[in-house]
Design a protein that fits this description.
Homotetramer. It catalyses: beta-D-fructose 1,6-bisphosphate + H2O = beta-D-fructose 6-phosphate + phosphate. GO terms for molecular function: fructose 1,6-bisphosphate 1-phosphatase activity; magnesium ion binding. It is an enzyme of class 3 (hydrolase). The protein has 327 residues and is an alpha+beta fold. The protein has two domains: 180 residues, 2-Layer Sandwich (Fructose-1,6-Bisphosphatase, Chain A, domain 1); 133 residues, D-Maltodextrin-Binding Protein, domain 2, CATH 3.40.190. It is 30% helix and 24% strand. The chain has seven helices and 17 strands. The strands form four sheets. An eight-stranded mixed sheet has the order 4-3-5-6-7-8-9-10, with helices on both faces. Helix 5 packs parallel to helix 6. The longest helix has 23 residues. It binds 1,6-di-O-phosphono-beta-D-fructofuranose and magnesium ion (MG) (2 copies). One magnesium ion binds next to strand 5.
């Protein structure tokens, strides 16, 4: 049985990277433990304040954020931390070589109903060693990520990770407290008949996205000539996990509900790490047209439309958007 520690020893080229990943995954064990206790640990409900995005914070959003921040601040390899829940990046150890970005608790609306939630993380290189990190140090395209992954706190706790051109998965053994390797080469089939979208936003979508979903709903009777099935976890981490396990398409497209926001999901804490995992598992990830990993960020909290998963389906969505742009 291979553990996460064995895997990192064998595959991580940089001991600093192993060390930072270990810190994040150790905090994941604490969050997993708190979620197991649920209401008994007094972790449910609202924190009573808003984050920088203007969203109501849940108690667990704040708790998970603080646990990660405290642990990473003590890690000598971590030069700074940026979080969905914090207005600005927090400098850590100026001599560190890595920057860590995270969505401490993804799927916040699932916390109080005992459904799947997760932690998403991304690791970037730090180039100004010796000086305190600032927001601008984090503004690197997703293709610069040295590692990315997520912890899914579901019926079991699973870690998905990429530190090279491969994607692997571990399951947290509650008896030993070790992450045990359960898949050493995650691959996504190019075709799928399963899709995930919050269809209540239909009237706010752009015409090509409406057309795409209309076609899927028409199934056998429409131009696609086969039936499709919807699955929606309401936590990106759960939807992406399903896609890494059995393929599918996930989208949170551009919509006009909040015209001043480019999309709902955050580039640095959600879209980039998930896109790296999906691409390295053979899938594709776009903002409907462009590759997410090539977007040059201008703000650590910027949002982006997301279409990711089985390659042929992601490309089909892109074709519809390109055709519309030219019509
Ligand atoms: O229920 P909605 O508003 O459609 O949003 C669901 C989406 O929002 C998110 O929960 C956003 O993440 P947070 O919970 O970290 O804010 C995604 O995980 C999920 O895909
Ligand atoms: Mg999230
Ligand atoms: Mg979150």
């Amino acid at each position: 049985m291979s553990t996460l520690a064995n895997y990192l020893d064998a595959h991580a080229k940089d001991p600093a990277l192993s060390n930072v990943i270990t810190t994040v995954t150790e905090v994941g064990k604490t969050i997993s433990g708190l979620l197991k206790k649920g209401a008994l640990a007094d972790i449910l409900g609202e924190a009573g304040n808003q984050n920088v995005q203007g969203e109501e914070q849940k108690k667990l959003d704040v708790l998970a954020n603080d646990l990660l921040l405290d642990a990473l601040a003590k890690n000598t390899h971590c030069a700074g931390v940026a979080s969905e829940e914090l207005d600005d990046a927090t400098p850590a150890n100026a001599d560190g070589s890595l920057l860590v970005l995270f969505d401490p608790l993804d799927g916040s609306s699932n916390i109080d109903i005992n459904m799947a939630v997760g932690t998403i993380f991304s690791i970037l290189p730090y180039e100004r060693q010796g000086q305190n990190s600032e927001n601008s140090d984090f503004l690197q395209a997703g293709n610069q990520q040295l590692a990315a992954g997520y912890l899914l706190y579901g019926t079991s706790t699973v870690l998905a990770l990429t530190i090279d051109d491969n994607v692997v998965m571990f399951s947290l053994d509650p008896d030993s407290g070790d992450y045990i390797l359960i898949n050493d080469h995650v691959q996504i089939a190019a075709d799928t008949s399963e899709y995930a979208i919050n269809a209540s936003n239909y009237r706010y979508w752009l015409a090509p996205m409406q057309q795409y979903i209309d076609e899927l709903i028409a199934g056998k009777t429409g131009v696609r000539g086969r039936d499709f099935n919807t699955r929606w976890v309401a936590a990106m981490v759960g939807d992406v996990h399903r896609i890494l396990c059995r393929g599918g398409l996930f989208t949170y497209p551009f919509d006009t509900k909040y015209p001043n926001k480019a999309g709902k999901l955050r580039l640095m804490y959600e879209a980039n790490p998930m896109s790296l995992l999906i691409e390295r598992a053979g899938g594709a990830a776009t903002d409907a047209i462009n590759r997410i990993l090539d977007i040059e960020p201008t703000d650590i909290h910027q949002r982006v439309p997301v279409v990711l998963g089985s390659k042929n389906e992601v490309n089909y969505v892109k074709d519809l958007h390109v055709q519309h742009a030219h019509s």
